[in-house]
TrEMBL record:
It is found in: Cytoplasm. SUPFAM superfamilies: L-aspartase-like. This is Argininosuccinate lyase. It catalyses: 2-(N(omega)-L-arginino)succinate = fumarate + L-arginine. It comes from Glutamicibacter protophormiae (Brevibacterium protophormiae). InterPro entries: Arg_succ_lyase_C (IPR029419), Argininosuccinate_lyase (IPR009049), Fumarase/histidase_N (IPR024083), Fumarate_lyase_CS (IPR020557), Fumarate_lyase_fam (IPR000362), Fumarate_lyase_N (IPR022761), L-Aspartase-like (IPR008948). The keyword Ubl conjugation does not apply. Residues 9-303 form the Fumarate lyase N-terminal domain.
């Protein structure tokens, strides 16, 4: 069987069905450059251990460079009969270095430690790309927050009007979790920066190779301390997948808000033409498809994570072929976010807010009732009583179909002697917002401080 890595003890080649099931080149080929980088490092460590001469090393590196160039320009590609990227690239190396020299490279390594290492290299690179896309999305949210420093809007709980808030405060509330996702990647990378190369099939190698040399060559901080762990663990994959799923969920929440805001009933935002779509039948339509795809793709990212965890559940150590199923979920997660994030960032960056309508609605629906209660507390009324009195004002206003500020001084006095005309100082959106000026509050001064801290943390990731 041409190109096979394991023919020696077999008298027959694999059945077609066996080969078809086993094959992974259609998805692991994208690891080819990482595989070749690993081979360069491995050739160097073989030379350092006295297993390749200087000349052999130079010839091996030249052959690997040629192989990589041929892979990148498509001159060399996986063949139908190649089982996986490792086997195919060994075949390509033998063609370029000759079987005598090329046949020396596999000493002291296994596809088990190779694939575990290449996977981490791929994930570390893509964690950086994804984090860059999240940072662009954060810049879009932050840009909109800074462009609207004093824009009030209705704050909601249970989707019902609750208390007035600043638009900038809400935009930042969608930004903080995404900033934490970037911080999670930074922290995750400490665990990902450990190289399994040198673990061999499971028990290490007998050839006196220095795994830390290889680790350093490949940009890792160190080599693993347990070869079984090195070949069998995939928690670093699962954690990556969890972070990508969380990013999907975080994007889906802001997206859902954009979908609501863009409805006729809300009319809080206008989507930019370039970041929305039309209908094939209804000429008037302008649809928030980016936000809907973000919402939908969150499900897919969660599926990638749960599929991977299910593969790992109860899997005995060390390597089992089940682990070949570790790659497609994380590849899919990376591909999904790398295509989604630029679209979401563009959509957010180009939103036009109807700040007048949002400000008009901010105090409506009795959203200042808490302010009346807390004003009464400042006059010495116990909160339980204050809550009741403010509730009575709401009931009266609701029965008349008016808002709290439409009630007369006499109406308030009729509810309680404590409700003097001075209560009107909190019966405005501005008064309500300005009063919430402690750290984390929605007052313009507090939000300005929040932005300083947000930018400090963003700058340091
Ligand atoms: N292609 C395999 C994977 O992706 C690596 C090869 C290990 N195969 C083996 N029979 N030990 O996990």
């Amino acid at each position: 069987n041409e190109g096979s890595l394991w023919g020696g003890r077999f008298s027959d080649g694999p059945a077609d069905a066996m080969a078809a099931l086993s094959k992974s080149t259609h998805f692991d080929w994208r690891l080819a450059s990482y595989d070749i980088a690993g081979s360069r490092a491995h050739a160097k460590v073989l030379q350092r251990a006295g297993l390749l001469t200087e000349q052999e090393l130079a010839d091996m590196i030249a052959a690997l460079d040629k192989l990589e160039a041929d892979v990148l320009d498509g001159t060399y590609a996986a063949a139908q009969f190649d089982e996986d990227v490792h086997g195919s690239l060994e075949r390509g190396l033998l063609e370029r270095a000759g079987t005598q020299l090329g046949g020396k490279l596999r000493a002291g390594r296994s596809r088990n430690d190779q694939i575990a290492t290449l996977g981490r290299m791929f994930l570390r690179d893509h964690a950086r790309i994804i984090a860059g896309g999240v940072v662009d999305t954060l810049d879009a949210l932050l840009g909109q927050a800074k462009a609207h420093p004093y824009a009030p809007m209705p704050g909601r709980t249970h989707l019902q009007h609750a208390q007035p808030i600043l638009l900038s405060h809400l935009l930042l509330a969608y930004a903080w979790p995404l900033l934490r996702d970037v911080q999670r990647f930074v922290d995750w990378d400490k665990r990902a920066a450990v190289s399994p190369y040198g673990s061999g099939a499971l028990a290490g190698q007998t050839l006196g190779l220095d795994p830390n040399f290889v680790a350093d060559e490949l940009g890792f901080d160190s080599a693993v301390y347990n070869s079984i762990d090195g070949t069998a663990a995939r928690d670093v994959f699962a954690e990556f997948s969890w972070i990508t799923a969380m990013i999907g969920v975080d994007l889906s929440r802001v997206s859902e808000e954009v979908i609501l805001w863009a409805t006729k009933e809300f009319s809080f935002v206008k989507l930019h033409d370039a970041f929305s779509t039309g209908s094939s039948i209804m000429p008037q339509k302008k649809n928030p498809d980016i936000a809907e795809l973000a919402r939908g793709k969150a499900g897919r990212l969660i599926g990638d994570l749960t599929g991977l965890l299910a593969t790992l559940k109860a899997l005995p150590l060390a390597y089992n072929r089940d682990l070949q199923e570790d790659k497609e979920p994380v590849f899919d997660a990376a591909d999904t976010l790398e295509i989604l994030l630029p679209a979401v960032a563009g959509m957010i960056q180009t939103l036009t807010f109807n700040t007048e309508r949002m400000a008009d609605l901010a105090p409506q629906g009795f959203a200042l009732a808490t302010d009346i209660a807390e004003w009464l507390v400042r006059q010495g009324v116990p909160f339980r009583d204050a809550h009741e009195l403010s509730g009575a004002a709401v009931q009266l206003a609701e029965s008349r179909g008016v808002e709290l500020w439409d009630l007369s001084d006499a109406d308030y006095a009729g509810i309680s002697e404590h409700l003097t005309p001075a209560v009107r100082e909190v019966l405005s959106t501005e008064g309500s917002l300005n009063a919430r000026n402690g750290q984390g509050g929605t007052a313009p001064s507090a939000v300005a401080q929040q932005i300083v801290e947000f930018e400090r943390q963003l700058d340091s990731v």
